[in-house]
Design goal:
This protein is mostly helical. The chain has 13 helices and six strands. It has one domain. The chain has a two-stranded antiparallel ribbon. Strands 3-4 form a two-stranded antiparallel ribbon. A two-stranded antiparallel sheet has the order 5-6. A hairpin with an 8-residue loop joins strand 1 and strand 2.
């Protein structure tokens, strides 16, 4: 199975890389550009190149669901879930979904996993182990998916931050899934990592493309759903604690208002092209202002520090996982 997983990862990387180049060209041709607001001069960058990641993940999973019948249920449901995540993001890009309707729609990608039964009725809980929650689990997947997809969308603010952070978190989930013997979690984690690595080649500083909501929602669903077959949802939450904390403070300080409704931006750009937290009390508090409260920092440094926080959280997830197994 490892050989199949590595092959799927390689295909996912190549397909995402090729699709990203094509989408960048299409965005440039048709004028789908977005300002990089955290750089001096606000250069315009292709807006939807990152849509390649969820598209590739869905395609690769669908193909391998026919090559590996024993994983067909997991891979097909996962493929549909990721596609639905991208669709929710596309609707947000096109229609500017409201702050109240978006969380509801973001739960929809959980439905294929529930309908196919591609989840564990005995989720792995920190310091508890396997818990029999057969009736609760499918209901809990709806808010879980909504929260994780929206949190991923919120944190996609700096060049390379979202793919880098989720690659780190997925590595932890992949290891935990392998220990539990979940071939499904291992394969879809690796497929997602392959796609994110390819997208990172274009999104790292200075970004040649963004993901758009279609990409960030699709990527968020892909990463969150990877933990579901093995019942590792809570371990994934631990791995992404910085993202969860950032999302919590965003809602606490801004409510469910859209970005366009903000009274002040959370980050200011200095004359030296450094990022600093906005001292305006009405500015929302997110992960990035937290890291720039004491002094202005360059964008690559803020991203590096953010990814380091995700690495610490992922190590915490692994340590909690090991301690739970040995309890």
């Amino acid at each position: 199975m490892l050989g199949w997983s590595l092959l799927a990862t390689a295909i996912s990387f190549v397909l995402t890389y090729i699709l990203t180049e094509r989408l960048i060209s299409a965005c440039l041709k048709y004028g789908h550009l977005s300002e990089d607001v955290h750089k001096s001069g606000r250069p315009k960058v292709p807006k939807f190149g990152g849509a390649s990641a969820p598209i590739s993940i869905s395609i690769v999973c669908l193909i391998f669901s026919y090559l590996l019948p024993e994983l067909s249920v997991i891979l097909q449901s996962y493929s549909i879930s990721v596609a639905l995540g991208g669709l929710v993001g596309a609707l947000d890009d096109a229609l500017r979904l409201g702050g109240k309707s978006k969380p509801v729609l973001a739960a929809v990608p959980a439905l294929p996993l529930i309908a196919y039964g591609a989840y564990s009725g005995r989720p792995f809980l920190p310091m508890v182990g396997r818990a029999r929650l057969t009736l609760v689990t499918p209901l809990a997947l709806l808010p879980y998916m909504s929260i994780m997809a929206n949190a991923s969308n919120m944190i996609d603010a700096l060049n390379g931050l979202l793919p880098s952070a989720l690659i780190v978190a997925l590595c932890a989930i992949c290891i935990e899934g392998a220990v539990l013997g979940s071939a499904g979690t291992v394969m879809i984690s690796l497929i997602s990592i392959g796609a994110l690595l390819a997208y990172l080649c274009f999104n790292r500083f200075p970004a040649r493309t963004f993901a758009g909501n279609v990409g960030s929602f699709g990527i968020g669903v892909a990463a969150a759903a990877a933990a579901v077959p093995a019942g590792l949802e809570m371990m994934y939450v631990i791995s992404t604690l910085p993202m969860m904390v950032s999302g919590f403070f965003t809602i606490a300080t801004m409510g469910f208002r859209e970005k366009s409704e903000r009274r002040a931006r959370p980050i200011l750009v200095t004359e030296d092209a450094l990022l600093e937290a906005n001292p305006d009390p009405s500015a929302p508090l997110t992960l990035i202002p937290m890291l720039t409260l004491t002094s202005p920092k360059s964008e690559p440094r803020v991203v590096a520090e953010s990814v380091l926080l995700f690495a610490f959280s992922s190590v915490l997830s692994l340590l909690t996982f090991v301690l739970t197994l040995w309890r």
